Amino acid sequence: AQSVTQPDIHITVSEGASLELRCNYSYGATPYLFWYVQSPGQGLQLLLKYFSGDTLVQGIKGFEAEFKRSQSSFNLRKPSVHWSDAAEYFCAVGEDDMRFGAGTRLTVKP
Amino acid sequence: DTEVTQTPKHLVMGMTNKKSLKCEQHMGHRAMYWYKQKAKKPPELMFVYSYEKLSINESVPSRFSPECPNSSLLNLHLHALQPEDSALYLCASSPSLGAGGYTFGSGTRLTVV
Q: Which end of chain A is more exposed for a tag (fewer CB within 10 A), N or C?
């Protein structure tokens, strides 16, 4: 079965600093991978997705992610974090039945 | 219209009540999903519908009964729930199975008393 692991439960970064959130997947073939963001009490917003092709994926809000098959990773990055980026971030995998990682809570220090 | 609309936003129900959650989309999507999210946890898949037919049931207790009356509407009927069923219930849709990139509604916050 497909699954993803997010090793970091909570990350704190200063505003303006760069960000990298880690995600490792478990799947034999090329997986469908996603990053979602969730603000408190809200639904989930899709940041970006990877199905195939170019391994560097650009998303909304200045986020990007890189698919690395050799490391089974799909890490999310942003060069300069804004205070409004504070939220819960979920990595997810799946085609017909998307499964989520445990999430990483991002805190942004002023 | 690029939204998934869920109603009600909040619901409090007793353990003997019957209630329904509603989810609607007008994007022409043919796959729809129900997820359950407990506090500080990731969403967990409950049901998947494709072309109004139930495709996946993740061994959800029968006190949760999904229904897809047409391609735009997905309901979740609730009966005899337990306090531990209190959670945020999220609906999502996608163009079809395997298309990826689900669009989520903002959820129904359910409290069972």
A: C
